[in-house]
Structures are given as structure tokens and as C-alpha cells.
């Protein structure tokens, strides 16, 4: 499916910490793009991880964005209100036989990596987001799976990428407005988790569902998510969802050349605001870190 004609952009922060200058940059790009084209700018609160997100940070997001002078459509979509939508998508993939339960703990995965590194021919591949899941639970027999379920061992649900890719009759493409047409290469992330052990969805699943439901025409986000877009294109195809146009912007970097993290207090919008800086000075500040 292709995107609709109307320009709709979104800024989709997670209320798991304070917004920093990098968020301000991303929000601004989305806002300015929508305004320039007479479109809509949407705010989405990505709070599926209820253990890490909280209402206080959410309130602060509204405050920070208001201070930056951004106005968004009044209906804010909070992901934690929509677990049913993600479950529907998850069940659809499950009905297609494309998911398998994964009982692994981080420790199990680490042990497998160590083991494989002793036999280099089995060495698991690393992708842009770290280790590609070595498929431990994919190879369980149905009896082993049933036993683990019966024992009540918590499990996540992973996509069986090989199976999903075997359903494709032709390659998939997506557009990055800066880098041009991309041939989707979802393999790059491996058998991604689509439902976590502690809640029945994941970032990857909920983001494609929401971008579709909210009719997002342009996804403008950081280049750290460039590879995720390759995988999102596959999910959109499997679930028959819209494919927006994409643009991945540069990430702001600290003086040491590292990515900003939510822990870096000096560059949070709140601390900048409280230090007496005016919102009009933000663009200048951002340029120092690009
Ligand atoms: N919630 C994500 C974040 O805070 C944004 C993901 C996206 O824009 O697709 O990094």
C-alpha cells in the first residue's frame, strides 16, 4: 500500500526520560515539514514499556514542546491505550505461521554467543543493532516448546524472518527522501522480537501499526533507525499497511562525538529552558552539535 496525499508527520517520543536537544531537532524537522506543506503535525506518546515510562515525563514532553513553540493536533495517541491494535497485528502474523516463542534470557543468548565464538564457522552475525539472534528457540521441537509453555517459562515472540521472506514474490522497496529508493533488506536485523516478555508488542510492531492508523505520510526520524525502516517495510507488506515516505536525519553528537542519551542532563530541554535560554536560540544551539 502507498501513502495518502495529505502530508502528516509525527514526533513520537518515549516518556522514559527528559527530551534533549536531539529530540527538539527531530520534532522541529517534523513540525516545519508539515507546516511548509500545509499538512498536520501529530504527537504520539510511545509508552508501551510501562515499566520505564511515566506520566511525569509525558507531562514534561508537552511542556517542552510548547516552550519550543510547537503545536500539534489535539488528539495525542498514547500507545499504552492501544495494546488491542498491536495484538490484532501480532495475531495476524501468528496465524500466518510467522512467529515463534522465544524463552531465552539475555544470559542464554550470551552463553550461545560465547559457545559459537569457539566454533568460528557458527559465529553469529552482528547487525547494526548488535547481535543478530542466533535462533536458539527457532530450533526447538514442538514438544520442547509445549513443555516450556507448560512450565510457565516467560516468552517473547520473534518473527521467523526466513519464513517471512519466503512469502515474498518480488523484492520490496521503500523511499528515503535523502538517500533515494531502497531495496528492503530486513535480514539486517534478524529474527526481531515483536512481542516482549513483559508486554504484548514491541517498538517495531507498534510503530508500523500506528503510522498506518494515523495515516502518516512522512516519517522523519534519526538515522539510528535507518535499518529499522528496512524491517518496517517487511512488516507493512505482511500486514497490508501503508508505507510512508522516510527521511532519516543526522543525530546530534556531544563534543566527544558520542550520541546524546537521556541521562545527559546538560542538553535536556528542561535544563536549557531553566538556564534562561530563549526558544529562539534553540536552532543555533542545535547547530553546535550537528
Ligand atoms: N519512540 C522512538 C524514540 O523515542 C521514536 C521512534 C520513531 O520515530 O519511529 O526514539
The strands making up the biggest β-sheet line up spatially as 1-2-3
Instruction: Please provide the count of β strands.
Output: 12
Strand content: 15-25%
Q: Which ions, cofactors or small ligands are bound in this entry?
A: glutamic acid
Instruction: Write down the Rg.
Output: 20 Å
Tally the helices: 10
Shape: globular
**Unreliable sequence segments:** none
Largest sheet: 3 strands, parallel
Mean pLDDT: 93
The N- and C-terminal alpha carbons lie at a distance of 35 Å
User: Secondary-structure element order, as H and E?
Assistant: EHEHEHEHEEHEHEEEHEHEHH
Helix and strand content put the structural class at: alpha/beta
The percentage helix is: 25-40%
Question: What would a concise description of this structure say?
Answer:
Helices cover 38% and strands 16% of the residues. By secondary structure, it is an alpha/beta fold.
